[in-house]
Design brief:
Elements: E1 3-7, E2 11-12, E3 17-24, E4 28-38, E5 49-52, E6 59-62, E7 73-76, E8 88-96, E9 104-111, E10 116-122, E11 128-134, E12 138-142, E13 153-160, E14 165-172, E15 183-188, E16 200-202, E17 205-206, E18 216-217, E19 222-230, H1 236-243, E20 255-260, E21 269-272, E22 280-283, E23 287-290, E24 311-314, E25 328-331, E26 339-346, E27 351-358, E28 369-373, H2 375-380, H3 390-398, H4 409-416, E29 434-436, E30 449-450, E31 459-460, H5 463-475, E32 481-484, H6 485-496, E33 501-503, E34 510-511, H7 513-524, E35 528-531, E36 539-540, E37 542-543, E38 550-552, H8 588-592, E39 594-600, E40 609-610, E41 647-652, E42 663-668, E43 676-677, E44 699-705, E45 711-714, H9 732-745
Parallel strand pairs: 2-27, 28-32, 28-33, 33-35, 34-36, 35-45
Antiparallel strand pairs: 1-3, 3-25, 4-5, 4-6, 4-26, 7-16, 7-22, 8-13, 8-19, 9-10, 9-16, 10-11, 11-12, 13-14, 14-15, 17-18, 19-20, 19-24, 20-21, 21-22, 23-24, 26-27, 29-38, 30-31, 37-38, 39-41, 39-43, 40-42, 42-44, 44-45
Helix pairs in contact: 6-7
Length: about 750
């Protein structure tokens, strides 16, 4: 990408300033404020609607390249007590996951530029090694035996200054015949560790004194458990005592530092439990609350046995903040209407958009309707490259689909810079569980298409799909405020109570507990909710209290692209159990009447047929202008080609919480075998899980009332909103949506 950027926030309100960070290969670029109304350029729809606006931030800016520096590590500031010029021992339990990728730092005070200092490494052959160097002489000893990936090892390196010798110990936790990778080795040391101003790094080695992303190399993939440095050379018996747990490095009288990873799980703090207090900071969000070498299998919650979760998982593609410099800022005017905006960045040869939502101040609504933009879902899918996820490749190949990837410039940018979201895998094959807004999100764009949808042709998703709804409301004259997931999470009922009706976007999948509580309170207080999507209120999502630009998801027992170990399913940032909301008593049916039941992105959608409940007087307003036998959404759409029901769908189910008084007014069935029942409801292996074999593969349209005049209307399909503009907005999907929105937005009581 010749030009790419991001904003320091996804949404703002009047009076706030948004900072824009840009990387541009050209000498200069132009920035233009625009209001984004419709971004999907499909010729069968309204086409692109993007209005240029006046702004003091519009103008020409100098181009400069800003690089991304992924990779997590712990940085401990330089300290005289870490300047080891005599004997020492470094010890840790390690769980490497890419032993063949090159030299990786474990615990190092090593300047990569000058080969000065000391450190324990995984060497180029995948064996444990110890290095000392004074800038002229480098002494190294390695076991010469490659470790195995995803296995725990006791690792220790000893430097004896008096005997000018070095020794390393590499012992697997599990021993197997013919596969034993236990080894130790010794060597003479001609020199010793020289003094360096570089700080100590856990999970890499230093390239400069700053010890921030971009100045650390030799990044490690895997877990490290409670590393310790002792200021003397331990003998074989003492090493054996450490390995067998008969003594503790932290309790040694000569301990220099003993970092306790079994605490401070929700923070970036890494505490040194020794008297020296050589505390560190975890940078780029390494994984916390993960099992250590001594996990016994009795506790699945790190809070109940923190000493068994005293490990941190490092990955060379972790990235929580790109830390780019600001290129220009935009102060949101007091009179700017609530809507979706962006700065369009252009060079002579390239273009990019940096979108941001503008909401009203809490307690100062400007309309009776609020449209809820799923920014946490955006973060979950940020920079997704599902097309090279082995799980999805197998799924696509089973449907006869091949998607060339990477193909487009932004896809190459994602892959080349190790950008990924919560649907992607780290370079070592583990799932990514943290996502951040403080980096380029190249699929958060008004014209974005996901190429793994629609038989490889691609379809609008996320922002581009949500603009279908915003454009529809604007075209039909509905005034609305734009709010986001973040706004509900932080402001809750105080924000929602100002609106008669809240409309969801097409894919409201990722919700926090605070959001669910706020929605329930809003509905019980008389609020009304139009759930016009599918696969909503699905994955448990948490927001990092210290770093609110970061969300966390731990996947298990749900339909997804990877699965965490169950023992690591609790969120490190909040301590809450992860997975699906349905398994914590918040099945989507409980709040909105329907919940995820099926998915399919490569076949043909379906349409809705009215059911007897649709003729109940309570539902009459929904079907004004709709014939008794009229098929709803039986026409071309901007998502998957045809039909209002599809992609991912939801069903009503009293057993999961759909209220008994709910009216199931229409349903869509007749799906082909590219649509499948969700895996969390499959109890045993069988072939009765597709659209032609399982009646759970359907999409239900539901209406039901809450106390005090509250109500919910659902369509249970991601594809619904892509039908709104068909035939110049004159169709039965548009008509039903308008009927409900007018009734829900009015001050009049429901029938």
């Amino acid at each position: 990408m010749e030009i790419v950027g991001y904003a320091d926030r996804l949404r703002a309100q009047p009076g706030e300033t948004v900072s824009f960070k840009v990387s541009c290969q050209a000498p200069s670029y132009r920035a233009q404020l625009v209001r984004v109304i419709h971004g999907d350029d499909n010729p069968d729809g309204p086409g692109s609607k993007i209005d240029d606006l006046d702004s003091p931030a519009n103008g020409e800016y100098p181009g400069r390249i800003q690089e991304l520096h992924p990779g997590s590590f712990v940085a401990v500031p330089d300290d005289p007590r870490l300047q080891l010029d005599g004997s020492f021992t470094i010890q840790a339990w390690i769980y490497p996951t890419t032993v063949g990728k090159g030299r990786q730092g474990l615990v190092t005070k090593w300047d990569c530029n000058t080969d000065t200092g000391y450190g324990l490494f995984v060497d180029e052959e995948g064996a444990l090694s110890l290095r000392v160097g004074d800038g002229e002489t480098v002494d190294e000893v390695g076991t010469g035996v490659a470790m195995r990936d995803a296995k725990w090892y006791f690792a220790a390196g000893v430097y004896d200054a008096d005997e000018s010798s070095m020794r390393v110990y590499q012992t697997p936790l599990d021993h197997w015949p013919l596969q034993d990778t236990a080894a130790e080795a010794g060597a003479a040391a001609a020199g010793g560790p020289g003094r360096t101003g570089a700080g100590l790094i856990i999970g890499g080695c230093s390239r400069g004194p700053e010890n921030v992303p971009g100045t650390v190399g030799g990044l490690y993939n895997g877990k490290i458990d409670n590393p310790t440095i002792i200021g003397r050379a331990l003998g074989p018996d003492e090493i054996a005592a450490l390995r067998e747990g008969r003594s503790s490095g932290a309790g040694d009288p000569d301990v220099v530092a003993a970092w306790d990873f079994g605490r401070d799980f929700s923070t970036a703090t890494v505490t040194d439990s020794s008297p020296n207090g050589l505390h560190g900071e975890a940078l780029n969000m390494p994984g916390r609350a993960v099992t250590g070498h001594n996990w016994a299998g009795r506790n699945m919650d790190f809070k109940h046995a923190p000493e068994e979760y005293a490990a941190i998982r490092f990955n060379d593609d972790d990235l929580d903040d790109a830390r780019w410099e600001t290129d220009f800022e935009y102060a949101v005017p007091e009179d700017l209407r609530s809507a979706m905006y962006a700065f369009r960045l252009t060079t002579d040869d390239a273009e990019d958009y940096i979108p941001f939502a503008v909401r009203p101040r809490t307690g100062e609504p400007t309309a009776k309707i609020a449209f809820l933009l799923g920014t946490y879902t955006f973060l979950a899918y940020a920079n997704e490259h599902l097309a090279n996820n082995p799980v999805l490749i197998e799924y696509l190949e089973g449907k006869g689909m091949e998607v060339e990837f990477p193909l487009l410039p932004h896809e190459h940018y994602m892959v080349d810079n190790k950008l990924g979201g919560l649907y992607d895998l780290h370079t070592d094959g583990s799932g990514i569980c943290y996502s951040s807004s403080r980096k380029p999100i190249v699929n958060f764009r008004p014209n974005n298409k996901q190429r793994t949808v629609g038989a490889g042709m691609g379809a609008p998703v996320l922002l581009s799909a949500d603009l279908h709804q915003m454009d529809w409301m604007e075209s039909l004259g509905f005034d609305f405020d734009l709010i986001t997931d973040e706004d509900i999470h932080f402001d809750g009922l105080d924000l929602l109570s100002g609106y008669n009706v809240v409309m969801s976007d097409a894919h409201p999948e990722y919700w926090t507990e605070d959001m669910l509580i706020a929605l329930e309170a809003y509905l019980n207080a008389g609020g009304r909710f139009m759930y016009l999507g599918g696969n909503g209120l699905y994955w448990i999502t948490s927001v990092d209290p210290e770093r609110p630009h970061v969300i966390e998801v731990r996947r298990w027992n749900g339909t997804g692209s990877w699965r965490t170990d169950f023992a690591e399913s609790h969120h490190s940032t909040t301590g809450e159990p992860g997975g699906l909301w349905r398994f914590r008593g918040w099945a989507p049916q409980r709040l909105v009447g329907v919940g995820m039941t099926a998915q399919g992105g490569s076949g043909t959608n379906s349409a809705y047929r009215r059911l007897p409940d649709s003729f109940d007087p309570r539902a009459a307003f929904i079907f004004e202008g709709i014939g008794d036998d009229e098929v709803i959404g039986d026409f071309d759409t901007l998502n998957l080609g045809w039909g209002a029901a599809g992609y991912e769908m939801d069903r009503a189910d009293p057993a999961l919480g759909t209220p008994e008084h709910a009216l199931v007014v229409a349903t869509a069935t007749d799906f082909d075998d590219s649509f499948h029942h969700v895996v969390e409801e499959v109890m045993h292996m069988n072939s009765e899980q597709t659209g032609t074999t399982n009646d759970q593969v359907r999409s239900d349209m539901v209406l039901f009332e809450y106390p005090n005049g509250g109500a919910v209307f659902t369509t249970g399909s991601i594809a619904w909103s892509a039908c709104l503009s068909q035939n110049d907005y004159d169709n039965n999907v548009s008509r039903i949506t308008a009927n409900v929105l007018r009734k829900f937005a009015s001050d009049d009581p429901l029938p």
